Amino acid sequence: MSKLTIVANIHARPEKIELVKAELLKLVPITRAEKGCITYDLHQDNEDPAHFMFYENWESREIWQEHMNAPHLAAYIAATDGAVAEFTLNEMTQID
Predict the structure, then answer these.
(1) Interval 55-90: pLDDT, tens
(2) Tally of CA atoms within 13 A in the half-sphere of 93 that contains its CB
(3) By CB count within 10 A, which of 3, 12, 22, 91 is most buried?
(4) How many angstroms separate the CA atoms of 61 and 77, rounded?
(5) Are 17 and 50 in contact (CB under 8 A)?
């Protein structure tokens, strides 16, 4: 089974940038310790501080789906309810 790459873009509402950032940062150490997590890197746009991006690599899609159902993801969603203006997620496969 091939490795799965995730690119997740999160755009916080301008007045909620610090809240979203703090909640995203909480996810990093917990997720990096999960079974099957290869990389889980959080980025913040240099020009637009409301734009955050996760670059993730997982051993498989099934393992990533377990992560998506984890309690810490549910806690993040609850804590940022109404604070995220836009969220996009791309499931990708490295081809070279």
Answers:
(1) 999 999 999 999 999 999 999 999 999 999 999 999
(2) 6
(3) 12
(4) 21
(5) yes
